[in-house]
Design brief:
Elements: E1 6-7, H1 19-24, E2 30-35, E3 38-45, E4 51-57, E5 65-66, E6 86-90, E7 96-101, E8 108-111, E9 122-123, E10 133-142, E11 145-153, E12 161-169, E13 182-183, E14 191-192, E15 196-197, E16 203-209, E17 220-225, E18 236-240, E19 246-251, E20 257-261, E21 268-272, E22 279-281, E23 301-303, E24 328-332, E25 338-342, E26 349-351, E27 358-359, E28 364-366, E29 369-376, E30 379-387, E31 392-395, E32 413-418, E33 424-430, E34 437-438, E35 447-451, H2 465-471, E36 476-481, H3 490-494, H4 503-517, E37 526-531, H5 533-544, E38 550-554, H6 560-566, H7 575-578, H8 585-592, E39 605-610, H9 618-628, E40 637-642, H10 652-670
Length: 687
């Protein structure tokens, strides 16, 4: 008979889940690909300075193992957010050939891990010159070259940059000679993905867009002939435009061109007429089959070889007569995406069996098998294989052992809340949860509202040990997919147009108030936290409302004018859509920026900042602190900085310090009995 749970106040519960556990399990596998029958992917190593290694799982079903030891770090800095950093193929004489971007110098390298003598990776591209820089992403092997997209900095400012499709020789001749890199396109478009050759090698397709659009506003799918000498003909646009966002292009086995477009108001899969005759929606649904193209190389759709059919678990597949070039592995859904197999001729869509409730955009195919990265409320992200011939799915990455008893994990509740003007707000509620503790019946728990980054992004309800760190101690968490989030169609996304700092703030507050009004949360112990764009929402919320008792603000945007001038090129015109045209920026800054409204902030907060952040530079945080410290009395706050960290913390020691500082703030403000938290000095604290 199980022992009765002991009674203790919310927030005081002991938990075996330490900050070090959350840090060690942070990040997820990414960029899954196949080389022959093997599946490969990149994987984080927080305990090794935050590097990413390349992992392979052999065809014989043996355990997955890392391919590159430290200090190799497989990560591109293309547009600062990165992109697909590797590609591979089977050599004619056997064994894999891999090309990858090494983060430290951003050069492309070639590596043959099975070659006699195990020679080290050899560089393919030149060292970047002082005052400039070369970055590579979205590679594909074609003959004796690597086709990819090149980002070349031509001066010191973030906007001094050009991007072209490029061909890098595999023989290493470009390692010391930039001129040996062939430019396949001109640089008339500001942004682009890498070229994808057709199965017969006679055509190539890619996406382009220009300032001030972001890739979820409008992109163009371009197509060009590949001449016999390997040069490209004149590109022509076959889909997309200023108000249509094409998120991905792919080639079916029969050579037909496929794309994911939101021309219907939802990202759906299309077959595109290469001669400009339009596109046919292959699965018209009010669901998302795509998402925001934050970096090149994301895939929501992967064609399967001809003759492959979707099958439910245990069923025998059957192809209809007269079917086309094969079925499609697709990610689809509202909010979170699940994996399915679509027959484009019949419209049948069969979802993969299994516990996974959210899949990341990174599908790969080998024969009848589909690979992707998926998670659930009880399992973190892992590499999953679906055999479409049988319908059976299984985990193929090394499953991380649970650091604590899963009984300490929270159970998310996906809910819809009413917002201002009757609009719906999507959120995931994580109540406090502990297998051996309960709170007094008359007590309501403290809750922290989590505002996601982006802001054009969303959060799925999956296992996150950072959330479990708080819920297992008796602090509730609610993640809000505020208006402007992806996953719910273009209209929901567009709610944030010119309303950043208004709609996101209002939606988070509406959810927090609803939880308090229904008796789920203590109205006197509400907090808000967020990173990047979520840090903006958290800080703007402190300036806009007295609802929150405190906040955790992490590598944030705090000043609209400064952000437009200081951030990287990709987001340098993002504010056109989020806040309005340039002529309104001064007004919007006064109305919404936390720096301009610092006199309205009265709640304590902790501000966490990477000192090497090129997206939200430390100058943003320093301007807010300067504005606050001229006041009397000063709002109590802590400012923690981390050398060597950029936009998004990657090192285990950084994540531990940040998580513990956040808990210390809540303990102090909410009056929690937590003798296990470290000291946190709050500037201006007179208590």
């Amino acid at each position: 008979m199980a022992a009765a749970a002991a009674c203790a106040p919310y927030g005081s519960w002991p938990s075996p889940l330490a900050a070090a556990h959350a840090a060690a399990h942070d990040g997820r596998p990414e960029y899954v690909g196949t080389i022959g029958p093997e599946v490969w992917w990149t994987e984080p190593r927080p305990e090794e300075g935050g590097r990413r290694t390349l992992v392979r799982r052999p065809a014989d079903g043996g355990p997955a193992r890392p391919v590159l030891p430290a200090p190799w770090n497989v990560r591109s800095r293309f547009t600062e957010y990165g992109g697909l950093p590797w590609a591979g193929a089977e050599r004619v004489d056997g064994g894999p050939l891999v090309v990858f971007v090494h983060h430290a110098d951003q050069r492309l390298y070639a590596y043959e891990p099975d070659a006699p003598g195990a020679p080290p990776p050899r560089p393919l591209t030149p060292v970047s010159q002082t005052g400039g820089g070369l970055r590579w992403a979205d590679p594909v092997l074609r003959g004796g070259e690597v086709w990819c997209v090149l980002e070349e900095f031509t001066g010191p400012a973030p906007g001094d940059v050009r991007r072209v499709a490029a061909a890098v020789p595999l023989d290493g001749s470009a390692a010391g000679d930039r001129a040996a890199v062939r430019e396949l396109t001109d640089d008339r478009h500001r942004f682009r993905t890498g070229p994808k050759p057709s199965p017969d090698g006679r055509s190539a397709a890619w996406l382009v867009w220009d300032h001030p659009r972001m890739p979820w506003d409008g992109t163009e799918l371009q197509l060009a002939d590949v001449r016999p000498d390997g040069t490209l003909g004149t590109p022509r646009t076959v889909l997309g435009g200023p108000d249509e966002a094409v998120a991905q292009a792919a080639w079916a086995a029969d050579g037909s061109l496929l794309a994911v477009s939101d021309r219907s108001g939802w990202w759906n899969p299309y077959r595109v007429d290469a001669d400009g005759g339009g596109a046919v929606n292959l699965c018209p649904r009010e669901e998302e089959f795509g998402g925001p193209l934050w970096k090149p190389g994301l895939t929501w759709l992967a064609p399967l070889p001809g003759g492959t059919s979707p099958a439910a678990a245990g069923e025998t597949p059957a192809r209809p007569e007269g079917s086309g070039g094969g079925t499609l592995a697709v990610l689809h859904g509202r909010g979170s995406c699940v994996l399915g197999v679509l027959d484009p001729d019949s419209g049948d869509l069969v979802d993969a069996a299994g516990p996974w409730t959210a899949w990341q955009p990174g599908l790969a195919v080998s024969g009848s098998r589909v690979y992707g990265v998926a998670a659930s409320p009880r399992s973190a992200y892992e590499v999953v294989e679906l055999d479409t011939a049988t319908g059976r799915a299984r985990v193929v990455s090394a499953r991380a052992a649970d650091p604590v008893d899963p009984a300490y994990y929270p159970e998310p509740q996906s809910r819809t809340f009413p917002g201002p003007g009757g609009r719906e707000i999507h959120a995931h509620v994580y109540p406090p949860h502990h297998p051996a503790r309960r709170a007094p019946a008359e007590e309501l728990p403290p809750y922290v509202v989590w505002a996601h980054g982006g802001p054009t992004d969303h959060v799925p309800p999956v296992l996150d040990l950072h959330i479990a760190y708080f819920t297992s101690r008796g602090i509730g968490v609610v993640e809000v997919n505020y208006g402007g989030s992806t996953g719910y169609g273009r209209a929901y996304r567009e709610r944030l147009r010119e309303q950043w700092g208004v709609v996101d703030v209002e939606d988070c507050a509406a959810v927090a108030r609803a939880l308090a009004d229904e008796g789920t949360a203590d109205p006197g112990r509400l907090a808000i936290r967020g990173g990047s764009a979520g840090g903006w929402t958290a800080a703007a919320s402190l300036a806009a409302t007295g609802l929150y008792a405190c906040a955790a603000v992490i590598y944030p945007v705090l000043d609209l004018r400064g952000f437009a001038a200081e951030t990287h090129d990709l987001e340098s015109h993002y504010l056109h859509g989020l806040a309005g045209p340039p002529q309104t920026l001064e007004l919007r800054c006064r109305e919404r920026s936390p720096v301009s409204r610092a006199d309205r902030i009265t709640a304590p907060f902790v501000l966490l900042q990477g000192l090497d952040d090129p997206v939200c530079p430390p100058a943003q945080a320093e301007r807010l602190l300067a504005a606050l410290r001229t006041r009397t009395p000063v709002v109590p706050h802590a400012y923690l900085t981390f050398e060597g960290e950029g936009h998004g913390f990657r090192r285990a020691d950084t994540m531990v310090r940040a998580l513990e500082a956040e808990l210390t703030l809540y303990a102090r403000v909410f009056g929690l009995d937590r003798p296990d938290v470290p000291e946190l000095e709050l500037y201006g604290d007179r208590s």
